[in-house]
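Subject line: Sequence and fold of a protein, written as structure tokens
Enclosed: The protein record, placed directly beneath this head.
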Amino acid sequence: MSLRAIPIRRAGNRHNLFMGGDRELVMFAGLLAFALVFSAQELRATVLGVLLWFAALYALRLMAKSDPKLRSVYLRHRKYRSYYPARSTHFRVNRKSQGKQYQ
């Protein structure tokens, strides 16, 4: 009796990308460029907004190409503390609350 092979379809495992970059970051960059163009209503602001949009889209596509989950990894990294003090010593007195932490 052989093992049953179940195919995993690509459609169910794709990353949440929009225009080749992370969905939220691409839409936020588009919102910033749109706000710049329509709030200033000048030719210079329009050119700058379009350049900002294409530069952000290029950078976000490169980021998604290297790692589609890079934004979530970075946000998780920011939650970590910068310093974790060493607590392993023979002379440390562990309180009862310390032991309850690991149950």
Q: What stands out?
A: The beta strands are 17-18, 21-22. The mean pLDDT is 86. The longest strand covers residues 17-18.
